[in-house]
Amino acid sequence: MDVAFNERHILAITQTIRDYRKLQNIDSPLFLGMDTHALSEPAFASAMEGLAANDIDVMISEGTSYTPTPAVSQAILRLNQARKSGLADGIVITPPHNTPDEEGFTYDPPHGGPTDSRVTSWIESKANAVLERNLDGVKHTLFAKALSAPTTHKHDF
Predict the structure, then answer these.
(1) Is 83 left (phi over 0), alpha (psi -120 to 50) or beta?
(2) pLDDT band for position 5 (cuts 50, 70, 90)
(3) Among 10, 2, 7, CA closest to 99
(4) 116 in Cβ contact with 21 (< 8 Å)
(5) Hey, which of 57, 87, 88, 122 has its CA 20 to 30 A from 80?
């Protein structure tokens, strides 16, 4: 699922991913990665604000803040190997296949691969409803607070 970056969109999608995780009983860490595109850092900040406010354990890169997309998938697969519960998933902030001034926000489910169209449609529909409600019910905190939250963890991708 790729979406052009907009802080409101990122907050709505992050809240919706939290709701999806809850429905699917996904309760292990969410791996959060980003590439080097211009809007990756503000999208990362918005995502962290929402994830921390929702008490989601988030694994972010130690050292450099940039993470290759395949590294997030590998981290999900490694953690979920031989597990039936306590599964992890991820979000990658990456460029969509559109213009360079847009930024993508991709959800990676527990199988570590691309999200299927059914899940993408569900997330898009629910996130659009959140936007129509002017973000009513969306939790977020300050970025500095999110980075120091007890649910934020460093990971060597």
Answers:
(1) beta
(2) low
(3) 2
(4) no
(5) 122
List the chain domain ranges. Answer: 7-155
50 within 8 A of 138, measured Cβ to Cβ: yes
Cβ–Cβ < 8 Å for 7, 46? yes
Give this prediction's pTM: 0.90
Sign of CA dihedral 82, 83, 84, 90: negative
Query: Distance between CA 31 and CA 33 in Å, rounded?
Result: 7
**Residue 96: its pLDDT value, please?**
59
Fold adopted by 7-155: Alpha-D-Glucose-1,6-Bisphosphate; Chain A, domain 3 (3.40.120)
Nearby residues of 111 by Cβ (< 8 Å), 6 or more positions away: 76, 77, 80
- Bridge partner list, 90: 31, 108
Helix (H) or strand (E) holding 52: helix 40-53
pLDDT at 97: 53
Phi and psi for 42 in degrees, rounded to 5? -65, -35
Please compute the mean of the pLDDT values over residues 132-155 and round it to a whole number. 96
Per-residue confidence at 102, pLDDT binned at 50, 70, 90?
very low
